[in-house]
Design brief:
single chain; 131 residues; alpha+beta; binds zinc ion
Length: 131
């Protein structure tokens, strides 16, 4: 049940956990590199050589779940692959019917403002810059 006090973009942004803000429309699923599967990449056998793959975002713990073709082959086009997302309990969903849109840029702006002291301090470490 969605909180009835969530009405505007500002309401949603104020309530979202920073992990959700960081992952808004772009999770950090680890790439497949090297000679072992990354942490959070789990595979379970199903029927006829089909495998069920679960990838877990290390930032927010959202999972994407999908099946391979027999033999582990995969449809690499995410537009045609059937993906299921499983969000953490604390995730705040923004219902489209309310006409509120929270973009990645909105989320990044909130994170940036929250981190501005750290960002400025990092810039100061570099000293002054000639214009
Ligand atoms: Zn995430």
């Amino acid at each position: 049940m969605q909180d009835p006090n969530l009405r505007t973009k500002r309401d949603y942004l104020a309530r979202m956990d920073e992990r959700q803000l960081a992952c808004r429309f772009r999770h950090s699923f680890p790439p497949l590199l090297g000679d072992k599967l990354p942490k959070g990449f789990d595979v379970a056998p199903m029927r006829a050589g089909v495998m069920l793959v679960t990838e877990t975002c290390p930032v927010c713990t959202t999972q994407i779940i999908y099946e391979t073709a027999p033999g582990g082959h995969l449809d690499y086009d995410v537009r045609t692959r059937t993906l299921r997302y499983v969000y953490p309990e604390w995730w705040i969903h923004v219902p489209r019917k309310d006409g509120v849109t929270v973009t990645m840029a909105d989320a990044r702006a909130v994170l940036w403002e929250g981190q501005i002291k750290l960002i400025k301090a990092a810039a100061r470490k570099h000293g002054s810059v000639a214009a």
